[in-house]
Amino acid sequence: xQDKAEATGATGSTGPTGTAALKPEADTSKxxxxxxxxxxGTSLEKSVAAAKDxxxxxxxxxxxxxxxxxxxxxxxxxxRRTLRAGLDKAKFDTTLSKFFANAVRWIILTxxxxxxxxxxxxxxxxxxxxxxxxxxxxxxxxQGSLGNMAAGVMLLVFRPFKVxxxxxxxxxxxxxxxxxxxxxxxDTADGRRIIIPNGQIFGNTIDNATxxxxxxxxxxxxxxxxxxxxxxxxxxxxxxxxxxxxxDEPPPSVTLANIGPTLDWDxxxxxxxxxxxxxRQALIKAVRDELVRAGFEMPSPVTAPILKQQPS
Length: 312
Description:
Elements: H1 2-11, H2 42-89, H3 94-119, H4 124-133, H5 135-141, H6 143-158, E1 166-169, E2 172-179, E3 183-187, E4 193-197, H7 198-202, E5 207-208, E6 214-224, H8 229-241, E7 253-259, E8 262-272, H9 276-294
Antiparallel strand pairs: 1-2, 1-5, 2-3, 3-4, 6-8, 7-8
């Protein structure tokens, strides 16, 4: 009986050499021991599923936003061109037509951006409230830009100049190309484009050379001091009256400006503002031709050397 019991203990299912002893459990208490994954591939499947969810959530709205921005861009440019062409055809003021056309373009772009917020379920009311709360900080940070915008509005209201006028301001001279909310652009005679902040323009002296429909062309000419005054005046008046392109009213004027080594005469004629440069050139030529024909002496520039004694 004892031998049988020992045999059973050696070969039984609960013995030290039984079936359970053939599959020992992994000891996870040892350092570096690996815990087998009961379901291989589960982490990869979760990552793929998460990526699919993100793509399904954000890719279609992103495509919609891109389409909205592209459409808003083209529609805003089309609206600006159409409005500008319509106002020009109606002979509306060029300065205001450019301003209104640009304003319509920015309004359309702003509406497009608001639509993009709605696509992503962003509450525009909350967004506006946030902007309102941050208005003081934004105003302090952009006080220069806001000042330029206020100056742009004042320029459009008081109209010291308009598109196409030739002005001199802050040391720059040119023809106004465009008056925007923040800046004014002008083109110079030598083909340069100058952009000036509106704040600098509105706070400085503006010299508008084309504000009035007519301007005066002035030149100064010198003749010999021994010349007869009445004869010289008559010759110069004849030259001024015969200047092509001048206006009949006001009449030309010839004034003796200085008596010294030479007799200096100021001669003035009036012309249309757009033609004042050409008329001034014609006046110079007419005066020179009449003086030469009458035999007047044209004084030459005199150079007077100045000697300075070097200190010993």
